[in-house]
Design goal:
- Helix content is 51%, strand content 17%.
- It is an alpha/beta fold.
- The strands form two sheets. Strands 3, 4, 5, 6, 7 and 8 form a six-stranded mixed beta sheet that branches. The chain has a two-stranded antiparallel sheet with strand order 1-2.
- Strand 6, helix 7 and strand 7 form a beta-alpha-beta unit.
Length: 399
């Protein structure tokens, strides 16, 4: 069976127009059928649930004739009861199905022009950008509830990063920062905690963002990991009173720029010896030795190492099993890559509300994936010492 979460962007880029429309229609139809069958069965495909009402029983083939050509459908069957796709029945659920298709296409990053082609291929009249926006406003309720939910418990680790997208403002096209915060709680579980959009990464913006998180209940933060930015560093100290970790990957890029092409490999190997140490004291000592060795030939690089030592090695003061995930913003890179992949399809957003709608839906989708993963991001045993909760922190006492 075709994966219902296929990469729509690759379809747009690689498939001829007629084939593209048939693939998009097939994608939408499969998604709608899976949602309908899941509702009838009481559980999703392959999901074990005590609330399941029926079992699946294979598929039956059916051709669906559209203006884009014939689409081959595989309609799911149930062992008990029957199922027939609502969107194939004339004048029944057509409007609801169309809305679902448009919403799903928008969330997947399909441009409004492609959505218009899809609607026409479904045998209906075209749809304007304003109609797409009105239909997609239904997504806002779920996204806002997710982004404004209370934050409960302690969150020792917080990753923050920004990416930039283009939006129309007062007749101009400008770039705005889209800020995403991801945290790990005292149970070792990872969640998306916040999203904000602003004109720049200045300190007031970061400060307001972090204060919004604290008002929602964020507490217990001990380490914040981000790229080097004085605004966020100041905001972290002011609002959270936490340690700040400068992303090691970004720092290395900046440092190696001072080494020249011929010396980058050697310098990288030297600096890696500091990261390989087992204790903070040993790492600091090795860091200084490397800086002193490089000082005669690379004084600018050594000065950069002197300045950044505390921030780049901050993660060394935390439990060793956590360090590989604390020294950089790499845990956010995949998520930011997915955001860029889908927002690039849109190109220029009509307003900030549209950015929040699409990016918020992507974050909600990712958060749901993390929630159902069996393995914790960080193990419960290694997270226990990080808690400020005295009830959790005290050892058991025999009564």
């Amino acid at each position: 069976m075709t994966n219902p979460m296929m990469d729509l962007k690759s379809l747009v880029e690689k498939t001829p127009d007629a084939d593209l429309l048939r693939e998009m229609i097939s994608f939408a139809a499969e998604r709608l059928m899976e949602l309908e069958v899941g509702a009838l069965a009481g559980a999703g495909y392959g999901e074990k649930s005590p609330e399941r009402l029926a079992q699946r029983n294979g598929y039956r083939e059916r051709d669906w004739h559209t203006r884009a050509g014939t689409v081959e459908l595989r309609i799911p069957k149930l062992r008990t009861g029957s199922y027939f796709p609502g969107f194939l029945e004339p004048r029944r659920m057509a409007e609801k199905a169309l809305t679902a298709v448009i919403q799903e296409a928008y969330i997947q990053g399909i441009s409004t022009r492609s959505v218009d082609d899809l609607v026409k291929a479904l045998g209906m009249t075209g749809i304007s950008k304003s109609q797409v926006s009105r239909l997609c406003e239904e997504i806002d309720e779920r996204v806002n509830a997710f982004l404004e939910r209370p934050i409960e418990g302690e969150w020792p680790y917080l990753w923050i990063d920004a990416t930039y997208v283009k939006v129309r403002q007062n007749g101009r096209i400008v770039s705005v920062a889209v800020i995403v915060a991801v945290g790990v709680n005292s149970d070792g579980r990872r969640e998306v905690l916040g999203l904000d959009i602003g004109p720049s990464e200045a300190e007031p913006f970061w400060t307001a963002f972090l204060r919004t998180l604290t008002r929602r209940g964020l507490r217990g933060v001990k380490l914040v990991i981000s790229d080097a930015h004085e605004g966020i560093k100041a905001a972290v100290f002011k609002v959270l009173c936490a340690t700040w970790q400068r992303c090691r990957v970004h720092f290395m890029r900046n440092a190696l720029a001072h080494a020249g092409k011929s010396g980058r490999r050697v310098v990288s190997a030297f600096m890696a010896t500091a990261f390989a140490q087992n204790t903070p004291e040993a790492a600091q000592q090795q860091w200084r030795q490397v800086a002193d060795q490089l000082r005669p030939k690379l004084p600018k690089l050594s000065a950069l190492m002197d300045e950044a030592e505390t921030d780049v090695l901050a993660y060394m003061s935390f439990p060793a099993p956590h360090r590989t995930k604390l020294h950089s913003t790499n845990p956010l890179e995949r998520l930011n890559g997915e955001i860029k992949r889908r927002t690039d399809v849109v190109g220029i957003f009509p307003n900030e509300a549209a950015i929040r709608r699409l990016v918020g839906a992507i974050l909600l989708e990712q958060n749901d994936e993390w929630a159902v993963q069996r393995a914790r991001y960080l193990t419960l045993e290694t997270m226990a010492p990080m808690s400020d909760d005295l009830v959790v922190g005290l050892p058991a006492v025999a009564i």
